[in-house]
Fold each of these.
Amino acid sequence: MTPDPLPPRLPATDLTRHRRLREQGSLDRADLEAILDAGFVCHLGVVVEGRPLVVPTVYGRDERRLYLHGSVASRTLAGGTPVCVTVTHVDGLVLARSVFEHGVNYRSAVIHGTARRVIDPEEKLTGLRLLTEHTAPGQWSYARLPNRRELAATTVLVLSLAEASVKIRTGAPEDGDGPDAKLGLWAGVLPLTSAWGTPVPDPALPPNTPVPGHIARREGTRHG
């Protein structure tokens, strides 16, 4: 049976309620999904032996869950404990007339929940496929799939997308109609973009090994 889809509006819980800069907050699940789809590296936060620890890792998703990848040896991926996952995209620097009004145009998502270690081999393969296809679409069917030993050496966590906080900041500085506007200083936004470069072949490749189309097509396209 296919589980019911998550509601289109994000719930405002004690962990996700926007308490500061509420105008930048969003309860639209579509905004959460767009932020997740625009990136592939998240930061996983967890308390380990009484100390906070945050590590970067890759992720993939379906309509209800976020899958995270890591080594079996990683202390942060023990599973069954509360975690916090963040994804952030910086779109530009907001340079105002005063330092106090400087800021950043950004898109961010913070996901809260209890991560579960994926044990079932079929679900683990599903999670790894989502991770791979999210990071490099087309690579799952191109590269060799994991064998039994590699699967045993890989930890996959799954986290519900039910509870999340989203914030987005766009636009110009906010001091254009204040006293500092009379200073005659330049103010505006310095955009930041990133794009995929030219694929660099492994030196161990035989000469004239072609770049697969699903990789070559990404050259010059925007990331984020």
Note: The mean pLDDT is 91.
Amino acid sequence: MAISDLKLPQGVSGHAFKSPVLLAESLALNVAKHLGDAIEAQGTATLVVSGGRSPVAFFQHLAKQPLDWSNVVVSLADERWVPVEHADSNAGLLKKYLLQGPAAKAQFLSLYSASANLEQAADHADRLLSELPVIDVLVLGMGDDGHTASLFPGSPNLAEALQADGSRRCYPMLAPTVPRQRLTMSRALLASAKHKILSISGQSKLTTLDEALAGDDVAALPIRAFLQPTLEIYWCP
């Protein structure tokens, strides 16, 4: 199966690349162009990215782009509730691979806080995100189970987090894998982004995407919430 075999909805575009390196380079150029255009139009730009290991090459390429990074705000679509020094921290990953060199001048809005429990951490992040400017570019990933950000099928708060018109910005979420405690931006906040991109690799994720396109139960496969115009899908084998 190739991305060209998928029946994408009108207004959703697919881009196929021969290797992860080529995908990362092209994605970085695309994101940098949108951020540069936003800075030119409004003086600032806001980027929200996903964590995990998949985007590392993209982060490294994006960090090299000639942007006015001091006018860029960066945040995370989701975070593991672990300290920044922890190996599983998305914030730690960002600081190691994206917020380097000139890109270190970007303002980083972290979802993590050393609160008493996950619920209080989500409340803290929710208040913090009230200061987040309109998201210019959102880069999402997807798991084989159809989750995106930390919107996991079967998580206790999933129905609330998937409300299309909800006012809350951040929810506590439980992942099926360690570390289980996560924080995630809500569907409503993520969907408000001006430019939305889904970056995935491998046949298994293409199969999941094909399944997502064939149905409409958002709770079963949360990625379905974002398969809307004007999503761009980046894929490589």
Note: Strands lie at 13-16, 45-49, 72-76, 78-80, 107-109, 137-140, 170-174, 181-185, 195-201, 232-236.
Amino acid sequence: MQYPKAIGPYSPFREAGDLVFFSGQIPLIPDTGEIPANLQDQAHQAMKNVGGVLQAAGLGYEKVIKTTVFLADINDFSAVNEIYAQYFKEPFPARSAVAVKDLPKGVKLEVEVIAHK
């Protein structure tokens, strides 16, 4: 599983003891750098990118203990929530979801996670 290269001076993840902190993942398609047009495809791509960085750290979705979902439009909460639930199973990670003014590259969402090794 792949994830996009960083678009700034930051690491995709950093370890601190048994915790791994991951940079937010936007819906960039790793091979092309393109961004899907619609919200559902963007949400799936962001979650796949989360899976890619988790895998790079030797972890899976089940190791995630906290997520933050940044939304360009809070009205997208329900639609993103349905897709999010396809990647995380019970016991679900703790989560925050917030609306923000803008996101990098004009995307509709960004997903950030913290995992336990």
Note: The longest strand covers residues 64-71.
Amino acid sequence: MSTTQTLEFKQNKLLPLLFGEHNSHLNYLEQKLGIQISDRGNTVTLSGDDLSVKTAEDVLNSLLEKIEKKREIGTAEIDAELRFLQNKQDNKDEQPTVSKGKTVIKTKKKSIAARSPNQEAYLRAILNSEMVFGLGPAGTGKTYLAVACAVSMYLDGQVERLIFCRPAIEAGERLGFLPGDMKEKVDPYLRPIYDALHDMLPHDLMMKKIETGDIEIAPLAFMRGRTLSNAFVILDEAQNTTTTQMKMILTRLGESSRMVITGDISQTDLPVGVKSGLRDATEILHGVDDIKFIHFDKGDVTRHHLVSKIVNAYDQKGENTR
């Protein structure tokens, strides 16, 4: 059933941020929901089917709350609100398990919030559990959100150091043929960690903490034989670990530490016939008390909208092949 709803906003100074440059946010919402939106002064008129109009109203009100809290908004935040509302509609007859987007992680440079119900569950699991597995396709925020929680806990004094590691698996190139010393050879594999840290900490502070050892970014092999106490440990790209490597890093966990393991089992770079340590760990540890597993899917992809379509296309090809 078609309906028309008029919204009146009192915070005139905030409306340019809410509407977007040249009404880009309103235009984006129109396209996503298939409705018509017209604005005049401090009023907005929504026209379309009942559910879409109600959804647009909820999104605009929620975005305005974010702006009032000095948070930046864009199309990514619109998509996030639509995901939460869709989840709420899909589970309206069930007891909600996650409150909508209430977890906000604060770092030196920005505040970071979940953009999907699974991301919200992931943040809560990390903050409340000592070991968490984040499993799913690229672009779902597995590594970024884990780094955000690590930085926030370090700044709050909950842990004394941050340890980020990745298996240095050659994906098309051999380490021995790359130029430079060992650090220069492995740094490209660890670049996503550096990028996430740059988003959350001033460069000078980050480099100082790396020099003092409070922040350590290293290949997985460097963890052998150590006990990682009073630390927040992140193992990224864990699908590229062998079963032996996975057991090694899981048993490094020391007192007052927590560990997040992230990866996408469908994208392993291990040689043919070698079982992924991540796959093995999920089979062995599933059901162990105090270890949380959060599974992401293509609906949680928060990168460019084409990434979700690409993931979906590859998933479909995989299903057809099977």
Note: The two ends are 42 Å apart (CA to CA).
